[in-house]
C-alpha cells in the first residue's frame, strides 16, 4: 500500500513538473505563439467555422426558419442524389477528368524540373523559367477565352486543319474533346509553376555527386536516375498524395466557363452541378449534401492514397 501511495505521489509530481515545464516554455517562446495566432484565428474562422453550415445537408433548409429552425430529414438528400439518373454520369465525369489530369499532368513538372536542372547558364535558365511560369498568372477567364478563340471554326488551329483536311473541327461543341482540352490547357498553365518545388529541391544536390558519377562513367540518364530522382522522391510522394486526395476537387470556374449545351455529357461535374442546383435553383440542402458527399470521398481518397504510397515509399508519406 505504501509503495502504491509513493508511486502515485511520484506520478503527480512528474505531471506537475511537466505542466510547469510547459508553462516555462510558453513564457520563453511566447513571441512565436503570438506570430502563430493570426493564422490560427483566420483558419478557425474561415475554415472550421463554416463547417457548421454543412448541417443543412441533413435538413430541409429554409432561409426564413434558419439552420436551427429547419426540419431535420437525415439522409434524404443523399439518397436523392445517389438515386438520381445523373449521379453516375456526374460522378464518372468528375473522376475521369481528375484522374486523367493527375496521371497526365503529374510527371510534367518533374520532367521540366529535371530539364531545367541541366541548364548551366543562369541567364538562359531564368528566361526559360519566366516563359514557363507566365501562364500561371493568366486569369482563368482569359485562358478560356483564348481557348474559344484558338479553337473556334475560324481560329488558327482550325485554319491549319481546314488547309490539311478541308473541314473544320468543332472542338468546343463536341463532348469527346472537352476532357482533352481541359487537361492539356491545365498542364500548359500549371506545369511550369508546379515545377518550382522540384527545381528548389534539385538545387540542393551536391554537384560533386554528379562529377564523381561522371568520372565513374555514368551517363546523363543514369545520373538523373540515381542522384536527382532519389533527392526529389519524398517531395514527389507528398505532392502526389495531396493531388490524389483532392481528386474530386476540380476547379469550378474553368469547367463552368468551358461548358456549352453540346458538351454537357462530359463537362457536367460535381462542382458545376452543385452551383446549378444550389445558387441557380435555390435547393441549398440538396447542394450541401452533394458537396459534403464530394468532401467525404476526397478524405477517403487522401487516406487510402497515403497508405498505399507509404507502403511503396519505404514508410514515407504525408503523415
Structure summary:
The chain is mainly alpha-helical and 319 residues long. The chain has 17 helices and 2 strands. The protein has a two-stranded antiparallel sheet with strand order 1-2.
Describe this structure in words.
19% of the residues are buried. The protein has helices at residues 2-28, 30-48, 66-69, 76-82, 87-105, 107-116, 122-133, 140-150, 156-165, 175-194, 196-202, 207-215, 220-245, 252-258, 264-267, 270-280, 284-312; strands spanning 59-60, 71-72. By secondary structure, it is an all-alpha fold. A two-stranded antiparallel sheet has the order 1-2. The model is unreliable at 1-8 (pLDDT under 50). Helix 6 runs parallel beside helix 10, helix 6 packs across helix 11 and helix 7 (122-133) packs antiparallel against helix 10. It contains 17 helices and 2 strands. It is globular, with a radius of gyration of 27 Å.
